[in-house]
Amino acid sequence: MPDGRRLPIVGGNWKMHTDRAEAHRLLDALVDDLDGLEGVEVVVCPPAPWLGDAADAFDDTSLAVGAQDVYWVAQGAFTGAVAASQLVGTVEYVLAGHSERRQVFGETDEHVNLKLRAVLGAGLRPILAVGERHEEREAGRTIEVLERQLRAAFEGIPQIDDGFVIAYEPVWAIGTGLAATPEMAQEACAAVRAVVADRFGADVATTCRVQYGGSVNPANVEGFARQPDIDGALVGGAALHPDAFAAICRAVAAAF
Ligand code: PEP
Q1: What is the pLDDT of residue 4?
Q2: Residue 181 belongs to a domain with what CATH number?
Q3: In the chain, fewer beta carbons within 10 Å around the N or the C end?
Q4: Which atom from ligand 1 is nearest to the alpha carbon of 239?
């Protein structure tokens, strides 16, 4: 932003939900509700088969499309995989490091790093998700886990710019209805920013957007949006309900 403030960003992660008709209804409703909304950037991450539909629906709007996943190799015999270069022209953002990818598909910190390099190499913008598991928080290891995930993710990446988004997503809060408190999320997002400052410098940390994700809904979003180190939200369940998602985006914009 010209005045030095970070424009908050709200992402909607549809995961493996929606059929094509539902996807179109959602996309159309979001365009109707959110196109031109100032004070927030809105990114929608539908399942891969609807990425082209989303790009068409959002053409000439203020809304952006994100992919939920990418493979890091440039091309080849990798059945089912999608390369970063193949997403160029359709998406602006790509999620990497989501805990469901880590837990269900066995992705490691090293895989996340390879994905980030591929995304950045293709000129796309990553949304890097990091977060601790319940037992790690209980053991007082939250900051240590975030630092490990971030440093591994940044390995070999010389610099990042303000297109690089980080989502703090405590694993125990995703899809559970048990959101972190705004204070917990603020503390973790400040710790994320401190690692970015240490790794890339204070100026980069000042412009880098750090979202909170984990059971965000229209009723609790304002508490997160008012925190100094939280720049928007990554939303799963509520992103499937256009009214709820639009309300979240408007609340984040209003707090900006
Ligand atoms: C997510 O999928 O990243 C997420 C935060 O999901 P939910 O909002 O449903 O907790």
Answers
A1: 73
A2: 3.20.20.70
A3: N
A4: 8
Buried-exposed string 35-57: b where 16+ CB fall within 10 A, e elsewhere = eebeebbbbbbbbbebbeebbeb
Span from the CA of 207 to the centroid of ligand 1 (angstroms)? 24
Q: What is the mean pLDDT of residues 150-168?
A: 97
Q: Which residue has the tokens 């010389």?
A: 158
Q: What is the pLDDT of residue 2?
A: 55
Active-site annotation, residues:
98, 169
The range of the structural domain enclosing residue 189 comes to 10-233+242-255
| CA–centroid distance, residue 172 to ligand 1 (Å) | 10
Our count of domains for the chain comes to 1
pLDDT for residue 1? 62
